[in-house]
């Protein structure tokens, strides 16, 4: 049996890290391996100035749907930011056009 406390894969990008753990389980059809991903975000608490972690565990069949949802959420966030920026620009242009009207 594999040591389930040690990841078989580790990857990170800055303060976000993913570790893949392997576990042998017994099923009605015999032994098989399962995998789970531990997702960790590290951050510095501004009040205590200490490093803390947020952890989430996903099973192997949840990883791709979660990644797809994150990608979709990111695309929607970009659209939202562009709409806000466009609306802010239009409001600024309208107010500056009103200020330029001579009386």
Coarse morphology: elongated
In terms of DSSP E residues, the strand content is: 35-45%
Question: First CA to last CA: what distance?
Answer: 85 Å
The strand line-up of the biggest sheet is: 1-2-3-4
What is the strand tally? Answer: 4
Binned, the helix content reads 25-40%
Integer-rounded radius of gyration: 24 Å
Structural class: alpha+beta
Helix tally equals: 1
> Residue ranges: pLDDT <50 for 5 or more in a row?
none
Quaternary status? single chain
The major sheet is characterized as: 4 strands, antiparallel
Integer tally of domains: 1
On the 0 to 100 scale, the average pLDDT is: 89
In N-to-C order, the SSE pattern is EEEEH
Could you explain the architecture of this structure?
39% of the residues lie in helices and 40% in strands. By secondary structure, it is α+β, with helices and mostly antiparallel strands. Strands 1-2-3-4 form a four-stranded antiparallel β-sheet. A hairpin with a 2-residue loop joins strand 1 (9-13) and strand 2 (16-27). The longest helix has 40 residues, at 60-99.
């Amino acid at each position: 049996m594999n040591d389930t406390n040690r990841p078989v894969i580790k990857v990170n990008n800055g303060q976000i890290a993913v570790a893949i753990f392997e576990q042998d389980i017994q099923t009605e059809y015999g032994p098989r391996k399962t995998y789970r991903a531990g997702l960790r975000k590290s951050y510095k608490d501004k009040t205590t100035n200490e490093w803390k972690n947020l952890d989430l565990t996903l099973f192997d069949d949840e990883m791709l749907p979660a990644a797809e949802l994150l990608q979709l959420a990111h695309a929607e966030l970009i659209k939202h930011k562009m709409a806000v920026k466009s609306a802010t620009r239009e409001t600024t242009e309208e107010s500056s056009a009103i200020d330029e009207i001579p009386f």
